[in-house]
Amino acid sequence: MAQPGWSEKWTLRFAVFALLFLALSGFEGLLMRTQQYDVEALRGMESVLNAIRPGDREPTQAELYFSMMSAHPIVGVYGFVYMAVMGAFYFLVPHLLGKEVRHKKLVAVNFVLQPLGVLICWGAGFFGLFNALYTLYWPLPVSYDRVPLWGSIFFCIGAAIIMVNILLFAFNLFSTVLSKSNPHSYSFWQFLRSAFGIPRLMKLFGKEDKKAPNLDYNGLPVFLVAVGRGSIDTVINAVVLLTAGALILVYGLAALFKAPLDPGAVNALVYKNWFWWGLDMVADGNVLIYTAGVWYLLVPLLVGRDLFGANVVKTVILVDLLVSMGVWSHHLLGDRSQPLAMRLLSGQFITWGEFFTMGLTIFASLMTIWLARPVKMTPPLKFVLGSVFGFVMGGTAGLIQANVGLNLVFHNTQWVIALHAHTFLLTGVGTLIFAILYALVPMLTKLEFRHKRLVDLHLWLWLVGAVLNAYAMGMAGSRGMLRRTLYEGGQFQPYVLVALVGGVLMAAGWLVFLYHLIATIGLKNVLGLFVPERWLARKQAASAPA
Amino acid sequence: MAAHPQHMDVRERRWLYLLIAVFLVFNAVTLSPLVPWQKWLLWSRPTPDKTFNIEFEDYQIRLPAEGIEVKAGQYVEFVARSRDVTYGFGVFRPDGTMVFQMQVLPGMDSRIIWKFDEPGSYNVRSTEYSGPRHSEMHVENAIHVTR
Q1: What ipTM goes with this model?
Q2: Mutation site, A63, A152, A269, A312, interface B, largest B CB count within 10 A
Q3: Which of B35, B109, B135 sits opposite A485 (nearest CB)?
Q4: Structural domain for B24, as ranges
Q5: C-alpha A197 chain-centroid distance
Q6: Helix (H) and strand (E) counts in chain A
Q7: What is the end-to-end Cα distance of chain A in Å, rounded?
Q8: Is A433 a residue whose pLDDT tops 70?
Q9: Is pLDDT of B18 > 80?
Q10: Within this chain, do residues B48 and B119 fall inside the same structural domain, yes or no?
Q11: Average pLDDT, chain A
């Protein structure tokens, strides 16, 4: 392998950690699925693990299950997905701008803080039995008769580290794009004004915003427009979750110092609206915008043709950002105390905005491929097409449940978490991250993936496994199986068994990819990524002829 | 013919029209009385014949002491209150399929009006996670619907 440069090395490091977090998250998924099949199935393993948990009391199987469920999405989203995004963007953004990352030291800080925060959250679940789940519905995380106090405190500390780290990452991205070395340099406020389409709005009213650059037509690659706009959602998400975490932490510390605060002082519905507004900036904000940006970047590169309707998609990204600001109420469709107007407008109609933005994004991507025929089905292109399928399937399930009428029988069922959320995350985002890896690894290492059959095996194991997992549980959800509920007595077992098989297939797909990656790069080179530069320099100096 | 670089290609415009058509049809159908409960939840808003209060506290679902007896075709209102954390009020058929549900947030009343069409016994289960013992929160044969 050619000696990778500074940015190549960091991207590969982030990628390796992302894959490890995917493995951890997947392992947790398999364990939880096993317990859904038989609540007592993990008792033997957990008895052994209890030896390293603090406290004398043996936790119940339900406590262990819901603790794992609380850590699982943090590992999957903030471990796997965010580490992959950080690695990819730290290479692609400077590469496309033709300049270096603005704050190089922050890259290393991001690399350390993200796993640290994720592992603290994971530890809060594993050791501290924190079980309030990622939704943290008020006042559950401060109800210390149900959620252990120390677990709650550590979870919030871990989450705070993650959110601060994400803010640092977004700051570095914005600094890099907006720094003076850019021929189109502008301030953050100018950028923000343009990102929200203010100049366009003013133009509609016959005025011109001379101070703001028009992001859509000033020559910036469409991928960077997507990263810029998607990162606004990223920042809002981090700030809102930080405030929620700080609130829980204040209650935790007050309880620790024997001066408990009244949970009733916080309105549960207002909190839920605030929390979901911020949390949804990931689920319905930056995920969709970043995904669109990556498709817009990869598809033309892979098929050797300009993006179909490039100017229209820039507008689509703008609409996506605006839509993401107003869709959160689809998470509150089950709340009869949420005003009906909010449920209808934000929960249903604005959410359908994503149908248009993703519909046009997918159309532009597929038309680009269609018009470029004959195209070579390279590994990244196959995975890009797989990810498109994932977003179509997960998006369709999402629109069915984001409905004032239908949500009555879908809310909080396995349909929501399996057919919608996990299809988005595994078949959509997961497959796209593999596409990025298949595209970037040869660019970064100058080494090609050698075995076409292993690529195909990875693709089909992953896709079939993910669809099987999501479809089986989605059907269980349509038969009334709730998420976040352990069923005794074998109810829904056949569905869970099929989903478990799907999970095993995905795990096999991951192993095939890992083997192929190591066979391509070499185990020594993978391990060498983590040898500090200072040691390498010293070794080189020692081996150099006198 | 190539489209103007800043205008929509004719194929893309046709696709957008198709998306608009799907949006209109799906939303019109699901907001209409074709979805049975939309008849009363969204449109007719009837005055309920009976009201049942259900309380949630400390992993317990407290139903009215006199039980819940309903006639098929009758409009009844369920008012759920939580004294501690968020729960869910879900009604299920004996085969496990869901009839309806709503979230029950602490500090406020959660209300829903329902009309049962089929006579029989229905189960109640908390549909929102409220702590590790949440899965224990179910009451068999909680609602009796007669002709």
Answers
A1: 0.94
A2: A312
A3: B135
A4: 1-31
A5: 26
A6: 22, 0
A7: 26
A8: yes
A9: yes
A10: yes
A11: 93
